[in-house]
Amino acid sequence: VLINSGSRHEAKYLSGISHFLEKLAFSSTAQFGSKDEILLTLEKHGGICDCQASRDTIMYAVSADAKGLDTVVNLLADVVLQPRLSDEEIEMTRTAIRFELEDLNMRPDPEPLLTEMIHAAAFRDNTVGLNRFCPVENTDKIDRQVLHSYLRNYYTPDRMVLAGVGIEHEQLVECAKKHLLGAEPVWGSGQTKDVDRSVAQYTGGIVKVEKDMSDVSLGPTPIPELTHIMIGLESCSFLEEDFIPFAVLNMMMGGGGSFSAGGPGKGMFTRLYLNVLNRHHWMYNATSYHHSYEDTGLLCIHASADPKQVREMVEIITREFILMAGAVGEVELERAKTQLKSMLMMNLESRPVIFEDVGRQVLATNTRKLPHELCALIGQVKSTDIKRVVTKMLHKKPAVAALGDLTDLPTYEHIQAALSSKDGRLPRVYRLFR
């Protein structure tokens, strides 16, 4: 079951509700006395369960033997619509969330933290810019009443999709009629009044966190102290036609860590490998990411290096952004398109991915584009399309996230100036010496 509900809908509520719901999923319900009972029921059909909340969707998923379809749909309906949310479960969730937040700040991998920061910078205080993790100060404030008032507004039939893979469509429809149609949720079916329909407003900006990264991983081979920078620009929503050229562009930029193993087949031909990691031995990481939502998107590059080389690193990344609008080689473009197609096909060999793909597409558009249709669209992308989407993107203000020792970080104004210059170079800074 996929539900159109996530941290982006929490504007009128306490931030962190989706994080709580994700952790509380598959706990006791009207039919099942405890999490163990649910797991035992699933085990009879060799099943496993999982719940994942993102910025715009929450997904309750079960994989089990097809013979147990009726049991599984019944269980899902109960978990989604009839959770008990007992005081004890909520208290345990509070503890789990506090632990997760501590762990997030101590991890050597800053990826989840930087992703939060870049979204907060790009969409300041609105929709997808709202924090996906529950802030520490809210862990004590979220209780059953708060959760129920949120669920009443967002867990409604028009915002839900039941998706299945490996079963006949008719069987799934029958089960949906039996267990979900007209089911009365535990919070009652009053009128929804507080549904947030706001559209993402891209603001651009900078979020900086000064942090001592010198001891993130102690031991015989510690990770050296690094400063992490992420620079992003607004792309487009996954419903727009430009989404495909952006996906090809993201593939073309590619990148990864300086310790990626393997030869050219591992994407070593992407621009961030060829122009950045191969030329600047001191860069530890340069990776391109593309986040896309129903009403907006964000293309960003994450780079990390020694704190003394932050300025140079930022300039290398701004230059790569400017070069995106330049010439795109035919071979380079074809390679990126082939890579994107093969990645799409490889991912769609896994059932959980097909399930999520079907569910998300139907949730957003009420239809599903089949893989061969997507491949045909990828095949049609020309170098002029790449140039067009990049030129449009470069007119926006940048979003910047910076984490670590930021002594040498250029100012936001300088980064913005570099991204609107012809060569992507930062303005020169003259230091006065007495």
From TrEMBL:
GO terms for molecular function: metal ion binding; metalloendopeptidase activity. The keyword Cytoplasm does not apply. It is found in: Mitochondrion inner membrane; Mitochondrion matrix. Substrate recognition and binding subunit of the essential mitochondrial processing protease (MPP), which cleaves the mitochondrial sequence off newly imported precursors proteins. Transmembrane segments: none annotated. Heterodimer of PMPCA (alpha) and PMPCB (beta) subunits, forming the mitochondrial processing protease (MPP) in which PMPCA is involved in substrate recognition and binding and PMPCB is the catalytic subunit. InterPro entries: Metalloenz_LuxS/M16 (IPR011249), MPP/UQCRC_Complex (IPR050361), Pept_M16_N (IPR011765), Pept_M16_Zn_BS (IPR001431), Peptidase_M16_C (IPR007863). Residues 1-135 form the Peptidase M16 N-terminal domain. GO terms for cellular component: mitochondrial inner membrane; mitochondrial matrix. The keyword Cell membrane does not apply. PANTHER family: METALLOPROTEASE (PTHR11851), MITOCHONDRIAL-PROCESSING PEPTIDASE SUBUNIT ALPHA (PTHR11851:SF49). Its main location: mitochondrion. Belongs to the peptidase M16 family. Residues 141-340 form the Peptidase M16 C-terminal domain. One of its GO terms (biological process) is protein processing involved in protein targeting to mitochondrion. PROSITE patterns: INSULINASE. Gene3D superfamilies: Metalloenzyme, LuxS/M16 peptidase-like. Keywords: Membrane, Mitochondrion, Mitochondrion inner membrane, Transit peptide. Pfam families: Peptidase_M16, Peptidase_M16_C. This is Mitochondrial-processing peptidase subunit alpha.
